[in-house]
């Protein structure tokens, strides 16, 4: 590659990184500032004191919230993987009347905004007695059209020969599903897993509505709890909360980035 | 054979769900352990629920308390509750944060009357009429009568708001009023008398003119600001002795239409519009924090805030802070302020034992000692004026003499149907329309047009509510 | 990991019904088997998507009382009202404007980032990580950060402007700026996801195509126009569709940043629904708005498939 092009690229890369990453770094900086520094509009803290973090953990049961977020995200992830892979399997490997229509029906659920259906859903959850329980926070999200769609795209790339071979080997359809199809689709499953985990971790309004106390509440609600209306908000503590909330997802993302990218692409392309 | 495999699949799925559910229990337990080792200080806050559960086995009456206090007030509230639980081992109050006032009320609406409903719920002042009409609550007057509880020990100007036709429906809890806050240093710099704050509209306008500092096109310091919140508008109307809705502010009957777009409301809008046109009014939006930051960083020299925020402002400002009464038109005799904030309601979806326990807690909250602590910790008023005599409060006033002004303004208020505050069921919606009207005003819409539109929308909201709740 | 050829022949096309009967299971049995596999999804969708959707449509013909129960049947009155209400029309306009800003800008930004991050350079992995990091930022966290950046007196943005000697901007207070500010936040939050997908798409393009072009002496821009973009079109189609649907459903950032203000300039339709239902407690009009929103998304998606897909170049 020519030198000039290389330099131009590096400049573009560095500039874009600075612009994109600035808000996150800034939040990190503010999380170390004391009240006066925040109000004076400083960009860098005078010292890297952890007081705000201590305060954040003291004022709210953050560990409990983090644990709940973890459990709920993991449960939704598992649920989505099972439910979506079953559905995707049927759409690809079983031929039946009305398959296209049914698939379109599935896809159409992507178009229904969650906020618009929240009221009837809240009532349903209440009637099931799932208010303030992990069920209310997880079960409604187990079925995912996006996940079915993504896995279907991947399953379609599985060679027909594999299915024939497994039939010859005497595998039942279900055995074919979990002994052949699932292992072969590991990338997509990991992708969907990460995607499901991230989106659940980031849910905001629903957890607030269906939970009552810290036994099941998630960490996003903590962000809300740190802000007040009639009495001043302590921005340093709020930013410390922001950092605490995003660290687990950022780590997951950094760790799984390659897998995620691979799997998402396969879904998007075909 | 194949059939059984397929069933195996669903059993497996079911198993996973059960697993998730088990996780629930073990999770919470593991978590508690984690916390125990993590920090002992935390116990004061989170320990509540745990010790509570333990106590519940010894048949302590559990009283769930839904509130909307975040940040500092939440900590203060939880401390008060912990003290109460310690002093009353037979009762276990469990405070639960439910988001903003709006969100808390929404949730309560959905679960009201069912077993999921809490024993006590905190609702903002403008939800009062809705709560009364909801049918989910037990008026506290019942307990006041049974118990011969003396309500005259409470601040009259506060109880007036929550008394409807002479009956108390809820117990006032966190109350605040609007005040004018100004930068004394800036006043002196502009050659104004920092010890006598402007009060009439023309005084404010003149002061704002002098306080405004411009650097070319950029305004460095605005003279006057007001948060885009309907509450301040309502207060500026009430203080003129005027009503927000007809039927005497909804106090003598079901209101059918908004009257805030009449004379008094127009006065307020014109007042704001004139300063906005002159470039002496700074608009800092509808976020409480933003306008305070603007004041603290010298972007505005006078603004209206809640009495509950006064102490924080003094703490965080590098200059002398003055606190004064809210403005009024030159030719109007001011009647004072109506209170804002919230009250706590007893619900009717529990047994009498629980109600009695909830009532004990409510009474505890109104004692002078608790109110003194609450007042000092949060800046909300003490609903029991005896609290002001407590040493804790007196010491506080020596450090913050400005707090005295907020109390005086409330005590100086003439009690009328105007300063009692309006009662409408669709208040939250109406307040939104007023906020939009204010925003439109600052963008250049004529005062009358902006106000009339908000009034019209309020009328419609009332009409719809009446039609659908017959 | 799966090196199966990615051509269409190897997969099973949805459309083709069995033309051969030597399959192990007869069709009728297949149907019930398929239903069994689809049952979990179907039950969940019915309970949590289809039922609430029908309930919403039903409620849109009623006024609701304090308990949220339908009390007065009003036919199309709710629809008639919102279509003549200034507020709703404004909200509709704001939503369209918001979609028109965020979707193209977001996709183009992600495309640009993916293009520069697709070059083989030292340390490129680091830049890719940075570019995709926003995907891990929740709506609540991102909005809180930006809320502070936009802060009129303390925010970094205004401080930078004054350091540069420029006049400050009322980011969230001026109606025109507010919609831009909310859009910027949204674009920032969504870049990570779009970037990852487009980068993956770029990496899937056959290297040989570039080698051939390189031998023929084609320049960078020529390659971009003639090879990269056409080959990337399926990926772009996917990301545009997803972005469109997401943009119509924006909620969290509006709730935290502006609450729909100032002067309703950022009152996006989902937020308007939320407020009508959860603050004003008018489930009837809220439901009518939801039905219209659903219609909008449906129309846009159909149009997108009808016209957008024609331009997509499949291998």
Give the gist of this structure.
The complex is a heterotrimer of chains A (270), B (470) and C (315). Chain A has 270 residues and is mainly α.
Structural features, described:
The complex is a heterotrimer of chains A (about 270), B (about 475) and C (about 325). Chain A starts with a helix and ends with a helix. Chain A contains 14 helices and no strands. Chain A is an all-alpha fold and about 270 residues long. Chain A has helices spanning about 5-30, 35-40, 50-60, 60-95, 100-110, 120-125, 135-140, 145-155, 160-170, 175-185, 185-200, 205-210, 220-225, 235-270. By secondary structure, chain B is of the alpha/beta class. Chain B has 2 domains: about 55-175 and about 340-395, Periplasmic binding protein-like II (D-Maltodextrin-Binding Protein, domain 2, 3-Layer(aba) Sandwich), CATH 3.40.190; about 180-335 and about 425-470, Periplasmic binding protein-like II (D-Maltodextrin-Binding Protein, domain 2, 3-Layer(aba) Sandwich). Chain B has 20 helices and 14 strands. In chain B, the strands form 3 sheets. In chain B, strands 1, 2, 3, 4, 7 and 14 form a 6-stranded mixed β-sheet that branches. In chain B, strands 8, 9, 10, 11, 12 and 13 form a 6-stranded mixed β-sheet that branches. A two-stranded antiparallel sheet of chain B has the order 5-6. Chain B is globular and about 70 Å long. The two termini of chain C are about 20 Å apart. Chain C is an all-alpha fold and about 325 residues long. Chain C has 12 helices and 2 strands. Helices cover about 65% and strands about 0% of the residues of chain C. The interface of B and C includes residues 284 and 429 of B.
Name of the CATH architecture of the largest domain in chain B: 3-Layer(aba) Sandwich
**Oligomeric grouping of the chains:** heterotrimer
- Taken together, the total number of domains of chain C comes to 1
Overall morphology of chain C: globular
- The total tally of domains of chain B equals 2
Structural class of chain B: alpha/beta
According to CATH, the homologous superfamily of the largest domain in chain B is: Periplasmic binding protein-like II
Which regions of chain C contain 5 or more consecutive residues with pLDDT less than 50? Answer: 1-25
Task: Report the count of strand segments of chain C.
Answer: 2
Placed side by side, the strands forming the largest sheet of chain C appear as: 1-2
Keywords (chain C): Cell membrane, Membrane, Transmembrane, Transmembrane helix, Transport
Family (chain C): Belongs to the binding-protein-dependent transport system permease family.
Domain ABC transmembrane type-1 (chain C): 92-304
Membrane topology (chain C): Multi-pass membrane protein
């Amino acid at each position: 590659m020519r030198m000039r092009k290389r330099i131009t690229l590096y400049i573009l890369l560095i500039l874009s990184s600075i612009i994109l990453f600035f808000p996150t770094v800034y939040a990190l900086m503010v999380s170390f500032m004391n009240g006066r520094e925040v109000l004076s509009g400083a960009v860098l803290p005078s010292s890297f004191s952890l007081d705000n973090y201590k305060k954040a953990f003291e004022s709210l049961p953050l560990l409990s919230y983090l644990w709940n977020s973890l459990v709920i995200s993991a449960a939704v992830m598992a649920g989505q993987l099972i439910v979506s892979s079953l559905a995707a399997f049927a759409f690809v490997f079983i031929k039946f009347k009305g398959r296209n229509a049914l698939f379109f029906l599935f896809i159409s659920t992507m178009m229904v905004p969650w906020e618009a259906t929240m009221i009837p859903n809240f009532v349903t959850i209440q009637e099931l007695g799932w208010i303030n329980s992990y069920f209310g926070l997880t079960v409604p999200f187990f079925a995912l059209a996006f996940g079915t769609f993504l896995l279907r795209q991947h399953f379609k790339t599985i060679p027909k020969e594999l299915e024939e071979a497994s039939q010859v080997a005497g595998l039942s359809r279900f055995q074919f599903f979990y002994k052949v199809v699932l292992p072969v689709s590991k990338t997509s499953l990991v992708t969907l897993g990460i995607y499901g985990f991230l989106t659940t971790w980031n849910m905001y309004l629903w957890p607030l509505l269906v939970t009552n106390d810290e036994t099941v509440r998630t960490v996003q609600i903590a962000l809300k709890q740190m802000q007040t209306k009639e009495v001043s908000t302590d921005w340093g503590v709020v930013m410390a909360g922001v950092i605490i909330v995003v660290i687990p997802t950022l780590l997951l993302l950094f760790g799984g980035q390659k897998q995620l990218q691979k799997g998402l692409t396969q879904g998007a392309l075909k | 054979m194949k059939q059984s495999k397929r069933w195996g699949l669903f059993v497996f799925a079911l198993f996973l769900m059960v697993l998730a559910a088990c996780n629930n229990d073990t999770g919470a337990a593991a978590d508690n352990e984690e916390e125990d080792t993590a920090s002992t200080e935390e116990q004061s806050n989170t320990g509540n629920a745990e010790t509570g559960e333990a106590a519940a086995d010894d048949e302590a009456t559990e009283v769930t308390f839904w509130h909307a206090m975040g940040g500092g007030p939440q900590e203060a509230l939880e401390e008060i509750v912990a003290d109460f639980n310690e002093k009353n081992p037979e009762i276990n109050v469990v405070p639960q944060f439910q988001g903003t006032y709006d969100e808390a009320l929404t949730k309560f609406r959905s679960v009201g009357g069912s077993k999921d409903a809490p024993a006590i719920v905190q609702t903002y002042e403008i939800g009062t009429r809705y709560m009364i009409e909801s049918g989910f609550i037990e008026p506290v007057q019942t307990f006041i009568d049974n118990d011969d509880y003396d309500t005259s020990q409470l601040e009259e100007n506060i109880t007036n708001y929550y008394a409807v036709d002479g009956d108390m429906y809820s117990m006032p809890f966190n109350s605040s009023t609007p005040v004018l806050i100004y930068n004394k240093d800036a006043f002196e710099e502009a050659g104004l008398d920092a010890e006598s704050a402007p009060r009439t509209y023309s005084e404010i306008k003149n002061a704002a003119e002098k306080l405004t500092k411009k650097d070319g096109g950029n305004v460095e310091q605005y003279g006057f600001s007001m948060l885009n919140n309907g509450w301040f508008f309502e207060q500026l109307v009430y203080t003129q002795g005027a009503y927000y809705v007809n039927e005497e502010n909804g106090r003598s009957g079901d209101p059918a239409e908004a009257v805030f777009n009449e004379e008094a409301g127009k006065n307020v809008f014109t007042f704001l519009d004139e300063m906005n046109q002159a470039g002496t009014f700074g608009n800092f939006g509808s976020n409480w924090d933003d306008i305070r930051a603007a004041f603290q960083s010298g972007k505005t020299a006078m603004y209206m805030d809640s009495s509950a925020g006064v102490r924080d402002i003094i703490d965080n400002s590098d200059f002398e802070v003055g606190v004064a009464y809210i403005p009024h038109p030159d030719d109007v005799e001011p009647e004072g302020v109506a209170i804002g904030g919230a009250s706590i309601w007893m619900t009717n979806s529990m047994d009498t034992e629980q109600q009695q326990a909830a009532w004990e807690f409510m009474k505890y909250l109104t004692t002078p000692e608790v109110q003194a602590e609450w007042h000092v910790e949060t800046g909300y008023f003490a609903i029991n004026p005896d609290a002001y005599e407590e040493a804790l409060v007196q010491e506080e006033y020596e450090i913050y003499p400005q707090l005295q002004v907020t109390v005086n303004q409330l005590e100086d208020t003439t009690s009328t149907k105007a300063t009692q505050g309006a009662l409408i069921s669709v208040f939250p919606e109406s307040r939104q329309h007023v906020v939009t009207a204010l925003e439109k005003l600052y963008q250049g819409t004529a005062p009358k047009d902006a106000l009339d539109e908000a009034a019209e929308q309020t009328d419609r909201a009332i009409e719809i509510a009446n039609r659908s709740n017959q | 990991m799966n090196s199966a050829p990615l051509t269409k022949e190897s997969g099973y096309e949805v459309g083709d019904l069995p033309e051969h009967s030597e399959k192990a299971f007869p069709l009728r049995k297949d149907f019930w088997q398929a239903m069994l596999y689809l049952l979990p999804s179907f039950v969940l969708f019915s309970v949590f998507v289809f039922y609430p959707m029908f309930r919403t449509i039903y409620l849109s013909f009623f006024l609701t009382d304090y308990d949220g129960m339908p009390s007065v049947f009003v036919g199309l009155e709710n629809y008639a009202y919102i279509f003549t209400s200034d507020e709703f029309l404004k909200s509709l306009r704001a939503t369209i404007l918001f979609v028109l800003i965020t979707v193209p800008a977001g996709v183009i930004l992600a495309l640009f980032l993916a293009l520069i991050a697709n070059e083989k350079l030292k340390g490129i992995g680091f830049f890719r990580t940075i570019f995709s990091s926003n995907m891990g930022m929740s709506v609540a966290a991102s909005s809180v950060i930006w809320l502070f950046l936009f802060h009129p007196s303390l925010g970094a943005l205004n401080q930078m402007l004054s350091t540069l000697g420029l006049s400050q901007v009322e980011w969230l207070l001026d109606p025109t700026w507010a919609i831009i500010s909310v859009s910027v936040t949204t674009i920032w939050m969504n870049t990570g996801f779009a970037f990852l997908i487009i980068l993956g798409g770029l990496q899937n393009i056959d290297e040989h195509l570039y080698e051939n072009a390189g031998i023929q002496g084609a320049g960078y821009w020529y390659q971009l126009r003639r090879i990269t973009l056409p080959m990337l079109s399926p990926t772009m189609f996917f990301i545009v569709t997803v972005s469109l649907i997401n943009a119509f459903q924006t909620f969290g950032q509006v709730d935290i940043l502006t609450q729909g203000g100032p002067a309703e300039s950022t009152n996006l339709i989902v937020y308007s629904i939320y407020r009508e239902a959860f603050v004003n407690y008018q489930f009837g009009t809220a439901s009518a708005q939801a039905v219209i929103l659903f219609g909008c998304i449906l129309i846009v998606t159909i149009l997108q498939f009808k016209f957008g897909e024609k331009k997509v170049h499949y291998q």
